[in-house]
Amino acid sequence: MSNTLLLIAPLVYFLLAVPVALVAQRWRVLPAALIALGGVAGALASLWVLRESEVITLAGWQIAPFAQFSVRLDALAAFFVGVICLPAVAVAIYGIGYLNAAGADHQHAPPAAIDALLAAFLAAMTLVVLADNVFSFLIAWELMSLVSFFLVIGDGRQATARRAGFIYIVMTHISAGFLLLALLLLARQAGGFEFAQLRAATGGLDGWERNAVFGLALVGFGTKLGLIPLHVWLPRAHPAAPSHISALMSGVMVKTAIYGLVRVIWEFAGPGPAWWGGLLMALGAISAVLGILYALMERDLKRMLAYSTVEHVGIITIGVGAAALAASKGHPTVAALALTAALVHLYNHSVFKGLLFLGAGALQTGAGTRDLERMGGLIRRMPKTALCVLIGALGIAAVPPLSGFAGEWLLFQGLLDLGANVNSATIGLLVALAAGALALTGALAVAAFVRAFGVGFLAQPRSAGASAAREVPTSMLAGMALLAASVIAMGLAAAGVVRMVRPVTTGLVGTHATPALGEGNVFNAGWLSGAYAPWAVVAGLVAVGVLPWLVARLLGGAGRERVAPPWVCGVDLEPRMQYSATGFAKPIRLIFQAVIRPQRTVDVDRPISAYFVSSIRYDEQLHPIYERHLYQRGVAVLVGASRRIRTLQSGSIRAYIAYIFLTLLVVLTLTRLL
Amino acid sequence: MDALLTLEQAGNAIDVAALSLLGLALVSLLVQRLETAIILLGLQGVLLGVASGAAALEEMAWRPWAAFLLAVLVKAVAIPVILWFVLGRVAGRHEVETVIPLKLAFPVGIGLVLLAYWIAEPFTTGTLGAEGFAAENAVPAALGLLLLGAFTMATRKKALTQVIGLVTMENGIYLAAVAATRGLPLAVEFGIALDVLTGVALMALVTHEINRLIGGINVDRLRALRW
Amino acid sequence: MDWLLLALQIPLMLLLAPLVQGIIKTSKARWQSRRGPGVLQPYRDIAKWLSRESVASDQASWIFRAAPPVYAAAILFAALLVPTLERRSPLPAIADAIVFVGLFALARFWLAIAALDTASNFGGMGASREVAFAALVEPALLLVLFAVALPAGSTSFSAMVGDGWPGAAAVPAFAALLVVTIAETGRVPVDNPDTHLELTMIHEGMLLEYSGRPLGVIHWATQVKQLAFLSLLAALFFPWGMADAGSRAPLALLLGLLAWFVTVVVLGLLLGVIETAYAKLRIFRAPDLIGVASVLGVLAVMLTFVVEG
Questions:
Q1: Is-contact A46 A126, C-beta < 8 A?
Q2: Which of A239, A263, B144, C30 sits 20 to 30 Å CA-CA off B197?
Q3: In this predicted complex, what is the ipTM?
Q4: Do C and B touch (≥3 CB pairs < 8 Å)?
Q5: How far apart are CA A415 and CA C160, in angstroms?
Q6: Which of A620-629, B158-167, C141-150, C160-169 has the lowest mean pLDDT?
Q7: Is A428 within 8 Å of C154 when comparing Cβ atoms?
């Protein structure tokens, strides 16, 4: 009984918070407390299940003969419940102050409604990972999409939000359509809708069916995941939502697609041929590199973070792909290592991406803008927010010893392990390219977050709003501080996160990465003694950091410092002299212009003579190739077809009824004949 | 309480009611005046009441009685009254306007009935015996009502006649339910009845609006709304 | 972890880094028919900076003050990972080649945000260029390390050090790492360490607002970085004369020290020759050169499969 309680406790809290949010509009602490309780309950349940390696099932509630609602908490689901619940706690706390604060970017919808939708959103996501049959899964999936759609459009008065919401809902339904097909195909083969039946029937699938299921699931989940080129909705929809919702959409919601992909690849469609993994790795690498490049080109902080999500989703997909490839080549330990890497990075990303979105919301609240070019100097006016965002930026830029690095370290080890075990030149090339892409992504992420933090928080304010910025309320700071502490803790105790993932890989691949990985506080990678001990690295950094200071003190005595204006060639310092975010990314734009294809127009106004310029207008835009070739063409075909079909739309009700009547006749006749 | 009718007697009663319903629906195709059509629709409701009443007398449980009450209240009383009320407020001539001549509509109707019998042939004998009443004509008649209703909707110009077609179709479904399964689960019956009632109320409202907007209830004029 | 080795390597890196810098500078001066300031000049410079007062930008926050120690710590720690005297890393159980790369990213992150912190446009320019070029250098560096790690079967530097030239696959790897070293140490043809001309500068741009002690610390750390990269080249490709792992024989360690120093100095001289023989590339031509290094890195990884398989 208590086990079942574990399973449903977070759900109950989240669902309870929905009516409470709507009724207790004056005490917004109540729903927040309920959500936070649910988050804590879910996190504890997740830890418990992963520790005890127990599987809890709850078959319940028959809605219709074919449709039963059943849920199950196994290791994989428990891990994802954890991924959902940790940010949920922070977001709930943050939301209290954020929605009350003036000047935030959510004014278009009443706070109570957002609270209620937030709770429903969390419940839906939890249900997605708990669902144990096709029916429950699809219902939860749709619920998740719909609730987030409403959160994106707000009250529908903003044209950008409406458009973002429209693209989102279209893409998400394309995704749902593919998923429906994949699951129905599986269910047909299995003769039932329960996931247990699907698992049992894996052996009965022939190669063609496996590939079809994988292809459908890849498009379906890939869309939700935001894999390039299926990501078009992501950088539009994520920034449009209120920031703490963006944190969940970017940090958590996209991960449910990884959950689905992992379930399909390892449980429903069985380990497939090697090309599944190869394809995933290639798609992941492309998404990672292009994602971070686009992120670097953005000056809207939230859009930039959304593109960075595309990047990290790509990194995670590389890991999943490497694991699938290793599994199909018969190297379970390699697969376990790569999968561990993917899942650890996934968890880490949900935390630091959540933190950064919360930081973006804090900037919107405190400085009144999301535009990097209008920030600056905020480290003095919002010092606590700045510290939290800096921790998040260091985490996401994957520098040791914070959490982002631990995940990427594991992934590099996984790739090397794959290359070392599978001796084939093709896979060698794949490994080399994936590793190169990963390294490139890592370095570009450093550039992107140096730019975001440096331009956003440092130097002089670039606008009136930034110079009048104020620190945000305590509840917002508390939410951010919780996640910032997690970024540090999950970096230092990365081995603990690895241990958490163990039962998941054991359940899926049959083994976990070598015992040494995650023992004590050292990472020992699968095959040999490549090691990374976060604690020891921190200790070493502190030790050797103190050293030069001591030497300097011995040699030069106490340091003296004078404060003076910086040298700007003899004129007065102005904020406009600072490097802008656009300018900062210029070298990267130039280096990668063949890939991202910027288009720029420069209008120079010379009214008097060629030597006197009165004004310069500089406009630079990115028109991604796939948007023009893939989407615009697709939409054109669709619109053309619709136009032709429209001749059927005569406008006469009788004609429509006649269609129905004729269809009825034909169907009835056919049933009689067949 | 003991059953007042045997299974066979009830089956015969339903059979008769079904045939009468089919006949009424065919006659409706020939009707010129809207008032008459509404009266005939009410009669359909009464006949349905007879059928479900027979079923109730056979089973003597509260469920079929509730279904009987619903059928009578909704189909024989509520819907005709609503339509009558709407008709009273509609401008223009209270005549049926069709896209095909009435003389042609009747033979087509007979063809549809024959088609219905042909399609329903596998279900008329024995197959439903264990579950349902031994009413040979019930399922073909139900199908016939469905087709005739759809045909009415497709060939009539006025919104009101289309409501009549819809209710006819629904009556078919209801008849099939009563005859074939000895009563659906009450929740479903209740749901259907409410659905249709709401549908009719809505259509009545819309008809009223159409009338107010375009000065008549000829749906052909809605074509102007197409973009 | 080997405390003796660690106790030797810390002073080795700190004390010899300026000397290697001095030797390279002097040799370059000789190649260019100048006398040069002498090999000890970097020591004198550092001593001078450390004792001078520092001037901070009035726009700068705590980031500006925190960056130099973080930068120095990350680089010194990375330098301690590279095998020098023995055929193993002094810190094998703590950090491997991937952490080595990560630590330089950490150093770069802090120096770049500190440069932006000053509100000076030169800082922004330097930071912008540094992170852009690093984006190209890092994959090349990592692929080289992969190419060596794959046959060795480990990313631990201890395992990656062999007995001699590591084989055919090492040719592109060596070339790539040489280019990486040139780029990471800010040398011609990628950057020019001797100038503050804004058209060309990368690394120096970030330091423009630093002075006095913080500047001394940064310069010193940068010299350690140079020595670390030269040591990496030596350890991966020319591990001749290194003492066997775990050896405590003083003679073997002394020989190892000698062999390491000679190799590092020879490689440093090679850098000096390259600097003299080539002209600085236009700043946006430099990515082409570094891109070649990345391609060489991929080639090196591929070759390990061909050679092994």
A1: no
A2: B144
A3: 0.95
A4: no
A5: 17
A6: A620-629
A7: no
How confident is the model over C161-179, as pLDDT tens digits? Answer: 888 787 777 889 999 999 9
- CB contact under 8 Å between B99 and A669, yes or no, is no
Q: What is the pLDDT of residues A385-410, one digit of tens each?
A: 999 999 999 999 999 889 999 999 99
A642 touching chain B per CB within 8 A? no
Structure tokens at B161: 């006649």
Return the pLDDT at B91.
64
Q: Which of A332-336, B62-66, C12-16, C253-257 has the lowest mean pLDDT?
A: B62-66
Q: Is C50 on the interface with A (CB under 8 A)?
A: yes
Residue pLDDT, tens place only, A470-519: 899 999 999 999 999 999 999 988 888 888 888 898 888 877 666 556 55
Region for residue C108 given its phi and psi (left: phi exceeds 0; alpha: psi -120 to 50; beta: otherwise): alpha
- Chain C CB contacts of A557 under 8 Å are 51
Burial (Cβ within 10 Å: 0-12, 13-18, ≥19) of residue A423: exposed
- pLDDT by residue (tens digit) across A631-662? 888 888 888 888 888 777 766 677 777 888 88
Residues of B in contact with A664 (CB under 8 A): 146-147, 150
Residue A293 in contact with residue A231, Cβ under 8 Å? no
Look up tokens 């590389």; give the residue. Answer: A318
Dist CA A97 CA A94 (whole Å): 6
From residue C208, give the alpha-carbon distance in Å to each of A24, A476, B150, C214. Answer: 57, 37, 85, 11
- CB distance A402 to A515 below 8 Å: no
CA distance C245 to C243: 6
Query: Which residue is associated with the tokens 């080549």?
Result: A329
3-state DSSP call for residue A569?
coil
What percentage of chain B reaches a pLDDT higher than 90? 5
Window 89-118 of B: residues touching A by CB (8 A cutoff) are 99, 115, 118
Judge whether C197 is closer than 8 Å to chain A, CB to CB.
no
Map out the domains of chain B as residue ranges: 7-225
